[in-house]
Structure formats: C-alpha cells, structure tokens
Design brief:
It is built from five helices and two strands. The protein is mostly helical and about 150 residues long. Strands 1-2 form a two-stranded antiparallel ribbon. It is elongated, with a radius of gyration of 26 Å.
Length: about 150
C-alpha cells in the first residue's frame, strides 16, 4: 500500500500504518478557524484537495475583524486569505497589511510620523528650536497659520 500524505504536515495519512512525525522544534504550526460560516457538527471531509493551494481555493477562508481607530470608533473589515503569504504581517510589510485598507492606512500614518521624526533628528536647527519652549510655541503658531491658509485655499 502506497503512503498517502496530507497537505498540512506531509505526515502519512491516518489510514496507513506509519506514524505521524512530530513537528520540529524550530517550526510552528498555527491552527485556527478563519471562516465564520461553519456550522457546528461533523466536519466536512474533502478528498480532492491535494495541496495547500487547493485548500485555499476550496474553503476560501475569510474573517470579519473589528479594528478600533484612533478616535476610538469601530472599523469593520473582512480579511480574505488566498494563500499562506496573506497571513504575514512581517513588520507592516506583509500581505496582511497590504490586503487590509485599514491596516494600510495605519501603516501610512506610522511611516509618515517616522519620516518626520527622522527629519527632526537630522536637522540640527529644528532640534534646537524644539528644545526651547518659546521657540517651539512660535513654530507651532507658524505651522497652524500655514495650515489654516492651506485649508482656506481649497
């Protein structure tokens, strides 16, 4: 009898006489339900799934997520997963962030703040202005004036 392997662990199928090999210590197996439309009861058995891509194509996992924005409001979004890479956050550079409009917006704001901070750290005159409370207030008033002028010219 030929050994049949399943797509998750590449371990022999339970119908064969071989044992399932444990996962190596340097690997992580994450199992969760990523669909909300599954009814309780007997799980669905699907025989024609040969690899992970077939599993994604068949089950089309998605999950509704409620994010909290900076004002404390709730932002509802449905995350869709079409391949393993869609789960990667990767410090904001992964597909999870890329595929989510809300997370992409948050990342853009974080990147903009980081860019301003870096500019301040590299600009000696601006650092000196921000150290002095009086100079800082003058800069703030000037920036608010410029912002008001830009808003009036829309």
């Amino acid at each position: 009898m030929a050994m049949k392997e399943n797509f998750i662990s590449m371990a022999p199928d339970e119908q064969s006489s071989a044992k399932v090999n444990p996962i190596d210590n340097n690997k992580t197996l994450f199992i969760d339900q990523f669909t909300t439309d599954v009814e309780p009861g007997d799980p669905q058995f699907v025989e024609d799934i040969q690899n992970i891509n077939d599993a994604f194509a068949h089950f089309r996992p998605q999950v509704e997520v409620d994010f909290i924005d900076e004002e404390g409001g709730s932002v509802n979004e449905t995350l869709h997963f079409n391949e393993i890479r869609d789960f990667e956050a990767n410090g904001g550079k992964g597909r999870l962030v890329e595929n989510s409009p809300f997370l992409s917006g948050v990342k853009e704001k974080i990147d903009a703040h980081a860019k301003v901070r870096k500019s301040i750290e590299q600009n000696r005159k601006l650092r000196d202005i921000l150290k002095d409370a009086e100079s800082r207030e003058e800069l703030k008033a000037m920036l608010e004036s410029m912002l008001a002028e830009l808003e009036n010219n829309k």
